[in-house]
Specification:
Elements lengths: L1 E8 L5 E7 L7 E4 L6 H4 L5 E3 L1 E4 L2 E4 L3 E3 L1 E4 L16 E7 L5 E3 L2 E3 L6 E6 L3 E3 L2 E6 L3 E3 L5 E3 L2 E6 L17 E4 L7 E3 L2 E11 L3 E2 L8 E2 L1 E12 L11 E5 L1 E4 L4 E7 L2 E5 L2 E3 L3 E8 L12 E10 L17 H4 L7 H4 L4 E4 L2 E3 L22 E10 L2 E4 L4 E10 L3 E3 L24 E4 L10 E4 L34 H4 L8 E2 L8 E4 L9 E7 L6 E5 L2 E3 L4 E3 L5 E3 L22 E4 L4 E7 L4 E5 L3 E7 L6 H14 L7 E7 L1 H4 L8 H4 L2 E7 L19 H16 L3 H5 L6 E4 L2 E3 L4 E6 L15 E5 L17 E6 L11 E2 L3 E3 L4 E3 L4 E2 L3 E4 L1 E7 L7 E3 L3 E3 L4 E8 L2 E3 L4 E9 L15 E8 L9 E3 L2 E3 L6 E8 ...
Parallel strand pairs: 3-8, 4-9, 7-10, 8-11, 9-12, 10-13, 11-14, 12-15, 13-16, 14-17, 15-18, 16-19, 17-20, 18-20, 19-22, 20-23, 23-25, 23-26, 24-27, 25-28, 26-29, 27-30, 28-30, 29-31, 29-32, 30-33, 31-34, 33-35, 34-36, 35-37, 39-41, 66-73
Antiparallel strand pairs: 1-2, 5-6, 21-24, 37-38, 40-48, 41-47, 42-43, 42-48, 44-45, 46-47, 49-51, 49-52, 50-51, 52-53, 54-55, 55-59, 56-58, 56-62, 57-60, 61-64, 62-63, 65-67, 67-71, 68-70, 68-72, 69-71, 72-73, 74-76, 74-78, 75-76, 77-78, 78-79, 79-80
Length: about 1200
């Protein structure tokens, strides 16, 4: 039955006849899955399998002729493997010509696919109705399966089936899943309501002339009506894939989606009210391989409709909260994402796959391919546009349009990301080229449409486009003057002068993306080097327009005449593809590109040398003599050297770069050293005298060295040569070496604080920037000059040999090993051999003795009496603070001994290893000492050498505790500050003096107050302020404070180093300050109120503490004995959540005090997350779904530990949460 939905004749003349289909599901013969309570959750129904079996070496092959049968509640969800297909009906391994078929039957309310065909060829499936399937509606991997006149409805994707939510599931099956089938016959079928592809089928071969196998199939309300993915096995023998015979209606994302390696033709299809009607993407070859294939994507004889007159935006809405829609976001095309509809997206031909469906379906993850095009022919489209998102040529003919603009998508700012090394618009979207060959696309004469390539040039700075992107070489005239941008490029985006912003490629290829063999352009390509450029068309050499072979078969060049410098520039009217001329004077290669054949430019391995002579002394005969001498010098056949040009002084003023005055006023003989051009891009001249690339490079290195060391006369056999250029580089002879920075020493062994920097200079004393070549650099060596220096044992150390880089020789770590004066360092060229006469000497250097310090790297500063204290010491350079690598650089033996400072305890003795020698390899030594009694010690380490030269001290303060102090119970700690009258700098000072005072005051306090622990003694200026901590029992600390207060009140004096120090009337205990003889507190204002006695404060504090203890005891007794008698109190059998427990724990739980444990335990017990997931939330927690996984039950039982309840002020139990 067919229900008419919409019928319309479009303004373009095409007729639409859209309808819905109705199918009857009931049949008299029924195969029904038995119902049981958990059937839907288990997704477990009836299955029928038709296959083969073996018994006693006999094979039995079954068959089934299914007609007018109803399959209801069928299949086992998740079992979709071909070797175990648990579908409503599965045919397995029945071979060829099986009598089986499936006709006039229905399949509905299933948990799996309805039909599977595996290893069963020639099967007929027709006139069936299939409704509500999971994974796919049916699958065939067999040969010659015929699927005819079937209705498929409601194909459910397994990733959101039964409230699953599987973001990791990237499977995209078709309702008709037949991508691996062969010779498939597909006619008159309808697929509706598919949650992924409607048709996932193999394309046909364009070259097969027989009747096409796909016809009159329909699909509607799918995400993608027909889709082919990058990894789908399109036959490698197929050079062109054909998609035909399908009408796509209301497909949300794409009507037809093709993404594979094979060229594609989409013919006789219709895409109506789809997100994007047609999307084509071809893969490969990768452009970095330089392989080009002319692949194409065509759309022919088809109808594209954006919206019909019955389309209603208020009705045709998508539920964006549907899980299937959420989990298909990677497939959303750009146009559908914006809410609009697109007709035909311009083809994308890219060097590699975009990893769909794991990545965005329309994403581009590789560079565009080198070649490719798209043809649109005989297309009717209405109320929808051609959407251009690609980079390939686009040909159109016989396009019927109505209200359908052509839209070229602009570049997106979000694609510009400097973190990805992208700081400007990508060119891809700016290179759309549309050939409207008959004018039907734009309602006019045949035309060409180009994209807005100059969009935002010098506009939005975020796009990184503007005149500053133009290479400076393009904006510089031959004499070095600046060229205006408006002069050289008045019309942006239509330039044919090519400058590279970086180094030009050695090999370059041009081709026109056209089918017109007469289409011609003249390219000009600028090269920074004068190496010969050989041009090939289809791999065959094209002679330069000024090139010729002489009688000796030498390949030579005719120079352009002085009166007509453009004499050899190719003529677009008369010359053919590949005609070329290289003007070395300007650096421009002129090349004609014509038709569809590619033109390849190969830069030859060449040495170009220009010899400079006095004006008016050079003619062609003289030039040939120079060529002969150069070839003879390098022992080369004459065919490898050729005269390229003779430039008179009057011509040289127009050179492309500024020259030195010698170049500008000289005649030049330009000589090329290179092999002859090969006949093909992959061939050789077959010459036994062929010169290798390495030989040519070596000749170039030798010529540069000869020019810089003054050997030009030997190379040219002429004493009149003034100079030489190699390529466009002026070779300047070296006159001498010059210091940029001379060496300045630090002291012996340590690298000079100023390292020498040397350059080669010309006869004017100017530095030479280009010295040697990268493959043959100049090398300089530093040596201590013989007979210099007062210490003959001193030697030059460090890296004494460096290369010149960009004309600089920079030393980094030169040093002299021992002290002395009068040292001279000689710097000499050691390569090339012809330049060894260049030397330069430093001024006489004075090297001071090295300053050394001894550092304690590990030592405890607190210990017990007689405990072993490990000590590790290291020798370091006092200036750099770096460890001295070789402490025996002058033959010293380094020894350290331990002493005690004068303010250490008088009864203290240092025991253990008190002397040790430093290890030469590590510059370290170790000691193990112990100290005999309580107090603070100044432990002094003395460093001496043999032979005697160094005598150095290092000190460490060490506090020794008694066993009684360690065993003392610490109940209180107070920080106390007091003050001595006296001059801080005179009495305390710094360094050793400071350490001695710390030790003295520490030991004085320890001797006075032995019932407490004195620690952390510090001294600061402001008279002499002493801060320390008192640790001990409450009474001990209080007694110490009273005693100190008394000493201050009495103005006690002590003697230190013969000087009398008196305690000032100042005391600070914790954060409270006291002053005066009564030690009262400092008032907060100047009100004149009397100070409060310290003793009274202490008494008040003790009384308050006793009262607090009594209050706490009373509260606890009240809670335990009195509160339980209250009528509203019901501890019952509860501990936190109601179990039996100690009442004290319950009190602490319910009490709102700082002792309460209520905040530590949640009031309501929270079950594990897995026990509270219901059907609406389970989907948000699911990840991937195995093909074997099946839901057994939705009943969830909480663990026993969470079945408790809480009793609150009533004997009735009421759970706080439930399932």
């Amino acid at each position: 039955m067919i229900v008419r939905v919409h019928k319309e004749t479009l303004s373009t003349g095409e007729k639409l006849d859209l309808s819905a289909q109705v199918g009857l599901l009931t049949r008299n013969i029924k195969i029904v899955g038995g119902d049981y309570p958990n059937m839907q959750q288990d997704s477990y129904g009836v299955t029928v399998k038709v296959g083969m079996t073996s018994m006693d070496s006999s094979t039995f092959t079954g068959y089934a002729r299914i007609s007018n049968v109803e399959f209801y509640r069928f299949g086992h969800e998740g079992y979709v493997d071909p070797f175990d297909p648990r579908y409503a009906l599965a045919f397995s391994n029945l071979g060829d010509n099986s009598p089986s078929y499936v006709r006039n039957s229905t399949f509905h309310n299933g948990f799996s696919p309805a039909i599977g065909v595996y290893g069963t060829n020639d099967l007929l499936i027709e006139n069936n109705v299939i409704h509500h399937t999971v994974w796919f509606c049916m699958e065939t991997t067999s040969d010659n399966t015929t699927i005819r006149n079937n209705l498929f409805a409601l194909h459910i994707w397994e990733g959101s089936y039964q409230n699953r939510y599987e973001p990791g599931n990237v499977r995209w099956h078709g309702c008709i899943e037949a991508i691996t089938a062969t010779n498939l016959n597909l006619t008159d079928n309808v697929v509706t309501a598919s949650e992924r592809f409607a048709y996932h089928i193999p394309p046909q071969d364009c070259s097969i002339s027989a009747e096409k196998r796909y016809a009159n199939n329909k699909a509607n309300t799918a995400l993608i009506c027909l889709g082919i993915l990058p990894l789908d096995p399109v036959s490698s023998a197929t050079k062109c894939a054909l998609i035909t015979g399908v009408t796509a209606w209301k497909c949300l994302y794409y009507g037809f989606y093709y993404n594979n390696m094979v060229s594609v033709v989409i013919d006789r299809v219709a895409a109506i009210e789809c997100g994007i009607g047609v999307f084509e993407m071809l893969i490969g070859p990768n452009p970095i391989t330089h392989v080009a294939e002319d692949r194409h994507g065509d759309v022919n004889n088809s109808l594209i409709v954006g919206t019909t007159s019955s389309f209603d935006c208020t009705v045709d809405q998508v539920n964006q909260n549907d899980d299937n829609i959420k989990l298909s976001s990677l497939a959303v095309p750009f146009k559908a994402r914006q809410g609009g509809k697109g007709g035909i997206a311009m083809i994308i031909i890219t060097g590699g796959p975009n990893s769909a469906p794991e990545k965005p379906f329309a994403g581009i993850m590789s560079y565009p391919a080198l070649l490719g095009f798209m043809v649109i022919n005989r297309i009717g489209h209405t109320l929808v546009g051609l959407v251009m998102i690609g980079t390939i040529s686009f040909f159109t003919q016989l396009i019927s349009t109505h209200g359908s603009p052509t839209k070229i998508i602009m570049q997106m700012l979000r694609k510009i990301n400097s973190a990805d090394c992208v700081d400007m618009d990508c060119d891809g979207l700016k290179k759309v080229l549309i050939f409207d060959e008959d004018g039907t696309l734009i309602d006019g004469t045949p035309s060409t449409i180009i994209s807005w390539a100059e969009y935002e040039w010098d506009g939005d700075p975020r796009r990184g486009l503007g005149d500053y992107r133009i290479p400076k070489t393009m904006l510089t005239s031959l004499n070095g003057d600046r060229i205006s941008v408006n002069q050289i490029a008045p019309h942006k985006a239509v330039e044919f002068l090519l400058h590279f912003s970086s180094t030009p490629p050695k090999d370059l290829r041009f081709h026109l993306m056209t089918r017109d063999e007469n289409a011609t352009i003249l390219m000009k390509v600028w090269y920074p080097s004068p190496n010969r450029k050989d041009v090939y068309v289809n791999g065959q050499f094209v002679t330069h327009k000024n090139g010729y072979y002489d009688a000796s078969n030498r390949y030579l060049f005719k120079p352009a005449s002085k009166d007509n410098p453009n004499e050899y520039v190719p003529d677009m009217m008369t010359d053919r593809n590949g005609a070329n001329y290289y003007d070395r004077n300007t650096g421009l290669l002129y090349i004609l590109v014509q038709g569809s054949d590619s033109v390849t430019i190969k830069t030859a391995d060449t040495v170009i040398v220009s010899f400079l002579f006095e004006p008016l002394t050079v003619d062609e005969f003289f030039g040939e003599q120079i060529v002969m001498h150069v070839c003879s010098f390098f022992n080369l056949p004459l065919s490898k050297c050729r005269l390229v040009d003779i430039v008179s002084a009057s011509q040289s003023s127009g050179r492309r770069r500024r020259r030195r005055s010698t170049s500008e006023s000289s005649d030049q003989v330009v000589v090329e050293i290179a092999n002859e051009p090969t006949n093909s891009t992959n061939g050789t001249v077959g010459d036994p005298d062929q010169v290798s690339t390495s030989q040519i490079n070596d000749i170039g290195d030798q010529i540069v060295t000869i020019g810089q060391t003054g050997g030009l006369s030997s190379l040219t056999n002429s004493s009149n040569v003034l100079g030489m250029n190699v390529g466009y580089i002026v070779i300047v002879p070296v006159h001498s070496l010059c210091f940029v920075e001379e060496p300045v020493p630090e002291h012996e062994v340590v690298p000079f604080k100023t390292q020498p920097k040397i350059r080669a200079c010309d006869d004017q004393g100017q530095p030479i920037s280009i010295l040697g070549t990268s493959s043959s650099p100049w090398i300089i060596k530093a040596e201590l000059k013989d007979g210099t220096g007062s210490n003959s044992a001193s030697a030059l150390t460090g890296n004494d040999t460096v290369q010149f880089v960009d004309g600089w020789a920079n030393f980094t770590d030169l040093a002299l090993s021992q002290s002395g004066s009068g040292f001279v360092i000689e710097f000499s060229i050691i390569s090339p051999a012809s330049a060894t006469n260049y030397t330069i000497d430093s001024t006489a250097l004075t090297i001071n003795n090295r300053k050394v310090k001894m550092v304690v790297i590990t030592m405890a500063t607190e210990a017990l009496e007689f405990d072993v204290i490990p000590v590790f010491l290291e020798l370091r350079d006092e200036i750099t603070n770096e460890r001295i690598e070789d402490i025996g650089w002058r033959g010293h033996v380094w020894t350290t001994t331990v002493e005690l400072g004068p303010q250490s305890p008088t009864d203290g003795v240092v025991n253990g290893t008190t002397s040790s020698t430093f290890d030469n390899s590590t510059s370290q030594t170790s000691l193990s000492i112990s100290l005999s009694s309580l107090g603070t010690y100044v432990v002094k380490f003395r460093l001496t050498t043999s032979p005697a030269e160094y005598d150095i001290y290092t000190e460490v303060l060490v506090t020794i505790k008694s066993q009684a102090q360690v065993s003392m119970v610490i109940e209180d700690t107070k920080t106390i500050t007091m003050k001595f009258d006296g001059d801080y700098n005179t009495i305390v000072g710094t360094g050793t003096s400071y350490n001695n005072f710390i030790a003295w005051v520490s030991n004085w306090l320890m001797g006075l107050y032995q019932s407490v622990v004195i620690g952390n003694v510090k001294v600061s200026p402001g008279s002499i302020i002493v801060t320390f901590t008192v640790n001990g029992s409450l009474s001990g600390v209080n007694e110490t404070i009273f005693s100190i207060c008394g000493s201050i009140e009495n103005g006690q004096s002590v003697t230190y180093n013969g000087q009398t120090l008196t305690l000032s009337p100042y005391l600070n205990v914790g954060r409270t300050a006291y002053y005066g003889v009564s030690c009262g507190p400092i008032p907060s204002s100047s009100s004149g109120s009397e100070s409060f006695p310290l003793a009274a404060i202490i008494a008040i504090a003790v009384t308050a503490a006793l009262i607090l203890i009594v209050v706490v005891i009373f509260v606890v007794l009240w809670k335990c004995k009195v509160a339980p008698k209250s009528k509203t109190h019901a501890i019952g059998k509860a501990k936190y959540f109601g179990n039996e427990t100690d009442p004290i724990d319950e009190i602490l739980f319910r009490e709102k005090t700082f002792m309460s444990i209520r905040d530590q335990i949640p009031v309501s017990p929270i079950p594990p997350l897995a026990t509270i997931i219901d059907d609406t939330r389970r989907k948000k927690m699911s990840s991937g779904h195995s093909e074997r996984s099946r839901s057994k039950s939705t009943t969830i039982t909480p663990p026993p530990a969470y079945t408790t309840v809480i009793r609150v002020a009533t004997p009735v139990e009421k759970p706080l949460w439930k399932y």
